[in-house]
Amino acid sequence: MQINISSKHVDITSSIEEYVLKKAERLPRYFDRIEAVDIVIDKTHDDHEVEIICNIEHSDPIIARAELQDMYACIDLSMDRAVRQLTDHKSRLRDRKHNPGN
Predict the structure, then answer these.
(1) Predicted structure pTM score
(2) φ, ψ for residue 81, nearest 5 deg
(3) What whole-number distance in Å separates Cα of residue 48 and Cα of residue 31?
(4) What percent of the chain has pLDDT over 90?
(5) Were both Cys, which of 46, 57, 81, 95 would link to 64 (CB 3.0–4.6 Å)?
(6) Is residue 70 scored above 90 in pLDDT?
(7) What CATH number is given for 2-98 in this structure?
(8) Integer CA distances (angstroms), 58 to 5, 18, 51, 68, 102, in order
(9) Nearest residue to 58 (alpha-carbon basis) of 91, 27, 89
(10) How many CA atoms lie within 13 A of 17 on its CB side?
(11) Are 90 and 30 in contact (CB under 8 A)?
(12) How far apart are the first and last CA of the chain?
């Protein structure tokens, strides 16, 4: 899985980059068909915005966003939203496979 971190209007320190990488490396635990993860960290007027885009093979990408004043809390919230979407996607695939139509 490839992880890309980019920023807009803010400099990413090494501690933030390590924190984001540590969190992003856990995503395949929830869904194993992730090809790449793009993480965009942006600074608006007062808040930080984190957008996580998970590119999944044979599916549309999963996009999770969060906007908070604290950057670390924003990263945590967006990762939690991505995890929830990944587990929902996995359960939808599993249910579709085990519950055939008429």
Answers:
(1) 0.88
(2) -65, -40
(3) 27
(4) 84
(5) 81
(6) yes
(7) 3.30.160.100
(8) 23, 29, 21, 32, 25
(9) 89
(10) 10
(11) yes
(12) 37
